[in-house]
Amino acid sequence: MTAPSPAGIRIHIRCYTQPPPPGTRLPDAGLEDCYKTLQYLLRGDKAMAPMRFTMESHGGFKVPFAWGHNSCAITITAAKAHAEGTFQFVLLAHLAAEVMEGCIKDSTSSLGGEAKLGDEDQFEILVTGTGYKPRDLGVVGNQTDGSVAEQRR
Question: Based on CB atoms within 10 Å of each CB, which residue in 4, 61, 108, 131 is the most buried?
Answer without folding.
Answer: 61
